[in-house]
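Tutorial, part two.
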Amino acid sequence: MTAGLRSLGRLWRFDRGLLLAYGLAALFLLGFVVAPLVRVALEPSAADWRQVLTTPRWQRAALNTLVTVGLSTTSSLLLGTAFAFAVTRARVPGARLFSVVPLFLLLTPPFVSGLAFVLLLGRRGLLTYHLLGLETSVYGLHGVWLAQTLSFFPVAYLVLRGAFLAVDPTLEQAARGLGADRGQVLRSVTLPLVTPALLAAALFIAIGVLGDFGNPMLVGGRFQVLATAVYTQLTGWASFGTSAALGLVLLVPAVALFAAQQAVQAATRQRFATVGGRGAGLPAPAVAGWLRWSLFALCVLVTLFVLASQGAGEVLPQSLMLRADFDWPKPDRRREFLRARMNAQGGIELFRNQASSALNSTVWANGLVDIPAGKAVVRGEIVRFLPYADLLH
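Running the prediction step on this input gives:
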């Protein structure tokens, strides 16, 4: 406390402009970070907390969130690390082209990968149905996992690319000269030197997955996570207390992840260090041929998916022909557009109260069913479905 006051005194005497900047930054954090968090923390009542902590639905959502964080963070980190290693150390053919591919995914919102996943691999997807004649369901945990992996691996790639480029090849060449094989050099020299970057990338990805809303909303189906539960309770049911309580529950793993990352990074910093002078400019040791071409195949697959995802909205029709999981026995003289959503089985369910306000179905529905004039629909019939995402395309 005394040291802090002494520092403020020195700033007041020698650099009042910097002190003013510190004050403005503190006011900004208080007004736009601390105050909203305090307001949210005061919103839930004891009944709201009791409902959140004891209701099986919210317990499942919390467990689903932790599962997706573990799976998506691990797979995104592995894919991003492999991609970064391929373009920086393995010297795969076309490395310069591959190095910019993940940037395309960073330039688009995360939910775009989920939408492209549905358009490419869904029940009426370009690859699964139109090319291979398969009918597969991408809704659920596996769809969310894959969509989040493709959405967040560029974060790991950017962090690890810089870390791999910063590794001094002299250290790896010295290890090779002392008799270490390629695998030992990778395990005992290269990876330990990029461990802080691995931990930082893991933290960034995990925080992003915790707050990811678009992918679970698009491809989650009945698989609900806390991010979608917060939005649903706030906008669909106007339950501010429950929504605030769920948001605070979501804050707990975020703080825990940050604390764990800081602790592990501090311990790692004491175990690994590099001591040396100016680098000799030696090239990095060559990797095994099978590994180089395996990484090349991985880069090609990721590149093809990125290109296909960017063009899927233009190649596929803007409507989907799906199975009706409802009966509509009352034809109208006018053409009707009914609020509906795709279910986990790949069919279409209708919003129960079509006469209610459109806001009531905003969270529940994700598209419209096109009913021609004078047409009655029987369960099992194929109908035309217009996803909201395509209507906004």
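The longest strand covers residues 336-342. In part three we will examine how such features are distributed along the chain.
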